[in-house]
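Same chain as my last thread, 256 residues:
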Amino acid sequence: MLRRPRVHPTDQLTLVDHLDELRGRLVVVLAVLAVAVGICFWQAGAILNAMAAPLPQPGGHPYQFLATSPLDGILTSISVAIYGGLLLTMPIATYQLYAFLIPAVSAQHHRSLRPLTLMIPTLFIVGAVFAWFLVVPPTIGFLVGYNDQAFNYQLRAKDYVQFVLLTLLAMGIVFEMPAVMLVLARLRIMSSALMRRHWRASIVALAVLAMLLPGVDPISFIVEFIPLLALYGLSYFIVLGVERGRGGELRTPDVG
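reply #2:
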């Protein structure tokens, strides 16, 4: 069910066939999402305690969030389940999107784009893990510790969960940059010369993107901007490798 057979580029499909294919992909994603949401709701308390690890924990006890309504506990558990389910489903969703769109690409490019089946979910997971270990802790530490003598922080779980999980989702999506560049290079839309020519504008665009990501403090900006630069550099070498491989294919003489 998770791995539907892909449509071959030579298959002649009607609009109804394409819509049926899209429906099948959506059914897979929604089924995985439903299971993930159910598991996250079941373990909402443990997930919330784990997410509260970067917060101050006096006496070693888990952080106690502020509740202003009898519904806060159940609504927070639902939020944890929905955001956690989305986070767990994203690798499957990105693969299903790739599998739906790849038949639109000519068959000669399929072998070169095949690494995307592993690259897309892996990059998302790496981005989410990077955010959890290297972005969230310093960001929370800076925000909660700033002028802590003048403020008595009593965080609502719903707001905190939304901030942390949106950060994980955003960094997971941003880390897909090399995969996107690989596709653009294979389709001859992106080139290494273009990336070199516009590197200054690209750095400005990446800085703006880092500012738009969750977290408004200098610490989160720095820890998000630096990997964006590294991803751009990795993307450049990926595009360069695609161009060199294409040149090697053109220079290969026919045997016979």
